[in-house]
Write a structure and sequence with these properties.
- InterPro entries: Tscrpt_reg_PadR_N (IPR005149), WH-like_DNA-bd_sf (IPR036388), WH_DNA-bd_sf (IPR036390).
- This is PadR family transcriptional regulator.
- It comes from Phytohabitans suffuscus.
- By secondary structure, the chain is mostly helical.
- The protein has 2 domains: 87 residues, Winged helix-like DNA-binding domain superfamily/Winged helix DNA-binding domain (Arc Repressor Mutant, subunit A, Orthogonal Bundle), CATH 1.10.10.10; 88 residues.
- Strands 1-3-2 form a 3-stranded antiparallel β-sheet.
- A hairpin with a 6-residue loop joins strand 2 and strand 3.
- The longest helix has 26 residues.
- The two termini are 23 Å apart.
Length: 177
């Protein structure tokens, strides 16, 4: 998924309960990586970075046939980190919908207000659209065309944000199910 933070997504998934690396990969692939599943190398590199940064901790180790299975749990710092990430609007750019979709689903999964997240993002898109419109008015033809291109993409994102907001109840049931 372009631009999406695997680390923060893992933190959001760990917030509901501690999980093994394998379970995290499965949950991630099922919800967010249908077209591009994670490699196990990515999973363990990400967990190792989260561990080093104090955002997760090893919650338990179970001996097994192969390597020992570590269970990871989110720390208070990890909860703070994922909260900050979910509350902060993304820079409007192409292919943003995968990150926005992940944020909405994780907000619903962790009992956070997904509607607020969508409102914050809508405000950021509208701010950028106003800025582009001002640039367009004072610009030459090339600048106008560049601004128009960006504005069309932002309008499509806005429609998606509004459609998603209208379907939050259904998505919430889907996520819970």
């Amino acid at each position: 998924m372009l631009g999406m933070s695997i680390g923060q997504t893992f933190l959001g998934l760990l917030e509901s309960s501690p999980r093994h690396g394998y379970d995290l990969k499965r949950a991630y692939d099922e919800r967010f990586g249908r077209s591009r599943p994670l490699h196990f190398g990515q999973v363990y590199a990400t967990l190792s970075r989260l561990l080093k940064n104090g955002l997760v901790e090893v919650d338990g180790v179970e001996p097994g046939g192969g390597p020992e299975r570590k269970r990871y749990a989110i720390t208070d710092a990890g909860v703070t980190d994922v909260s900050r990430w979910l509350a902060q609007p993304e820079k409007p750019e192409p292919y943003l919908q995968s990150t926005l979709y992940a944020k909405v689903v994780l907000a619903l999964m962790t009992g956070r207000p997904a509607a607020d997240l969508l409102d914050t993002q809508r405000a950021e898109h509208l701010r950028l659209m106003r800025e582009l419109t001002r640039r367009k008015v004072g610009g030459d033809l090339a600048e106008q065309l560049i601004c128009d291109h960006a504005l069309f993409h932002l309008e499509a994102d806005l429609r998606w944000l509004e459609l998603t907001a209208a379907r939050l109840d259904d998505l919430s049931k889907d996520v819970a199910g």
